[in-house]
Design brief:
The protein is an alpha/beta fold. The protein has one domain: Arginase, Chain A, CATH 3.40.800.20. 42% of the residues lie in helices and 12% in strands. Helix 9 links the parallel strand 7 and strand 8. Helix 1 crosses helix 10 and helix 5 crosses helix 6. The longest helix has 24 residues. Bound molecules: zinc ion. Zinc ion binds next to loops.
């Protein structure tokens, strides 16, 4: 059984010609249902979060400016989406989808959010299509509610989790691990608890061997009670914004490795989808769908 947070607002249409592939948020649930990887009953429509959970991570002034749509135009430009009430509602519901997911994962082992992985959102500002940091909000929620003593964030999106790193600097309860492209955005990287910066064109073999060497050791050292997995598929060679050289099969093996470790060790895991910008939308959907197929076969 897969438990998946999804709300129709996730596919919120951007202005005509916007380069962000919003369509994937509409096609992924359709594909999961069509092939029977998920059933309609697996889906949950997140409501609006308790604002206390958002403010446990994000600065009140910033959140107020989002809610009142009064964010400075320069700050809006850094986000890259035109600011609207619907966009802010979308981000709030995504955050709630991840909070819901932590409870589901604790009960059932795994939960998904068809969106999120908004790891470029800092405590007091948004960046690169990210307004609120859903997995940071979920991690802080677990810690504040004493549901976990140690949380591990495994961020395998091709871009560094700079916002997540900033949010948890000096916070011993949340360990941030980011494996990303060295020459990719963000060009000025923050310090995660563990960063692995990969050279351009890193392929499956090298990528997977580094991951296999690193993650079990990290889990053994940190002994997390809960794992967040950011399963961005922008590590593909075909990705427009990534610079790595992984194949779709390598990307699936990555998901298999991470999720089977969580499964074997009985550590609950919440997955948010993150980036994926291959020019062919079918490739993006196939790669994201693989994460769910892997989970379906394991759990
Ligand atoms: Zn990315």
């Amino acid at each position: 059984m897969l438990l998946i947070a999804y709300h129709p607002i996730y596919k919120h249409p951007l202005p005509e010609g916007h380069r962000f592939p919003m369509i994937k948020y509409e096609l992924l649930p359709q594909q999961l249902l069509h092939e029977g990887t998920a059933n309609p009953a697996d889906f949950y429509e997140p409501g609006l979060p308790d604002m206390g959970n958002i403010l446990a991570v994000h600065d009140k002034n910033y959140v107020d400016e989002l809610l009142n749509l009064t964010l400075d135009p320069r700050a809006v430009r850094k986000i890259g989406f035109p600011l609207s009430a619907e966009l802010v509602e979308r981000e709030l519901r995504i955050a709630q989808g991840t909070i819901w997911g932590v409870h589901q994962a604790m009960q059932h082992g795994i939960a998904f959010n068809i969106a999120g992985g908004t790891h470029h959102a800092y405590s007091d500002r948004g960046e690169a299509f990210c307004l609120l940091n859903d997995q940071a909000i979920g991690a802080q929620y677990l810690v504040n509610n004493k549901l976990a003593k140690k949380v591990l964030i495994v961020d395998l999106d091709v871009h560094q989790g700079n916002g997540t790193a900033e949010i948890f600097t000096g916070n011993d309860a949340v360990f941030t691990f980011s494996m990303h492209g060295k020459t990719n955005y963000p060009f000025k990287k923050e310090l995660s608890d563990l960063d692995i910066a990969l050279p351009d064109n890193t392929g499956d073999e090298e990528y997977l061997s580094i991951l296999r060497e690193t993650l079990p050791k990290l889990i053994d050292e940190q002994k997390p009670d809960f794992i967040f997995y950011l399963s961005g598929v922008d590590i593909l060679a075909s990705d427009k914004l990534g610079k790595l050289g992984c194949s779709i099969n390598g990307c699936k093996q990555r998901d298999e490795f991470v999720l089977s470790l969580c499964y074997k060790l009985s550590i609950p895991v919440q997955c948010s989808m993150g980036g994926g910008y291959s020019p062919d939308i079918k490739v993006i959907i196939e790669a994201h769908t693989n994460t769910y197929r892997v989970a379906r076969d394991l759990y």
